[in-house]
Each structure stands twice: as C-alpha cells, then as structure tokens.
Amino acid sequence: MSRWVHELHIAPQFYDCDPMFVVWHGHYLKYFEQARAELLGSLNYGYRQMLESGYLWPIVDLRLKYVRSAKLLQPLTVRAEIVEYEHRLKLDYRITSEGETLTRGYTVQVAVDAKTQELQYVTPRVLWERLGVAP
After folding, report:
1. Separation of CA 82 from chain center
2. How many CA atoms lie within 13 A of 43 on its CB side?
3. Mind listing the pLDDT tens digit for each residue in 75-126?
4. Which CA distances in Å does 9 have to 49, 66, 87, 94, 97?
5. What is the DSSP pairing of strand 112-113 with strand 100-109?
6. Closest by alpha carbon to 80, among 131, 108, 128, 38?
7. CB 83 within 8 A of CB 39
8. Which of 39, 50, 119, 120 is surrounded by the fewest CB atoms within 10 Å?
9. In this predicted model, which residue has the larger pLDDT, 128 or 134?
C-alpha cells in the first residue's frame, strides 16, 4: 500500500444511524475526516502540525457519491488517498464493505497563511517535506 493511503476499519454504531438503522448521510463525511486525519497524522502533518508550520488547510471543495447505504454494525473500510499535492491537497475516498463500494468522494484543501489569512498559490515547502517529495 502506498505511503499516501490510509485505511480505517469501522462498524457504524447506533448513534450514526437513522430510525431504519441506515447510516445517516452526514456521517459519511465524519468517516472521511477520520481517515484523512489518520493519514495526515501518519505523515506527521496532522492539524496541530499544520498550524505549527504556519498554515491552515481549509476544505474548499468536496464531493460525495452515495452508491449504496451502510447499515448498523456493517463492517466498513474507509480508504483515503492523497492524489494531488501541487497547489492544493486533494484526497480521494472510498467506503467499501466486503469489496463492494458504498460511497466515494473527494476533498480539496488549500494552504492559507495562518497569520495573514492569505491563500497560498504554491505548495508550502513543509508539505513537500512531509510527503517526501522534492519541489
């Protein structure tokens, strides 16, 4: 598995479901966030490290495609993968159960200078370093 991929294994709990024991649609974003946070943390560039490096990384675009509903206690794999890192940070996501795709999507984050709140139009050097690639 690529260094820029993380898989999270979860089973939706009662509090994530609607009265029909189907995962409420908004919780898929929470699962994406969990996988993204763990992936970035594994690169030593979690949210705390981002702020310490002088950058904020807000999400400016996101997409979800619901294919099939997840259900109470169904074993899920949430896969997050960094697919772009030049000028922005794009992650693709896929939620599967026993090999079947239930949801897919992506998020796009951009670097913002934490002090000036100015959008950075180039990738900050710290991200290149954490990804282990040369600019």
Report:
1. 8
2. 24
3. 999 999 999 999 999 999 999 999 999 999 999 999 999 999 999 999 999 9
4. 25, 19, 30, 12, 10
5. unpaired
6. 38
7. no
8. 119
9. 128
Do 80 and 43 form a contact (C-beta atoms < 8 A)? no
Q: How confident is the model at residue 34 (pLDDT cuts 50, 70, 90)?
A: very high
3-state secondary structure of 11: coil
pTM: 0.94
Question: For the chain, percent helix, then strand, then coil, each to nearest 5?
Answer: 25, 40, 40
Q: Which amino acid is at 85?
A: Y
Q: Is the pLDDT of residue 66 over 80?
A: yes
Q: Which residue has the tokens 């690169």?
A: 43
In 24-111, DSSP assigns E strands to: 55-56, 59-66, 76-84, 89-97, 100-109
Provide the token pair at 93. 């996501």
For the chain, how long is the longest CA-to-CA vector?
Answer: 50
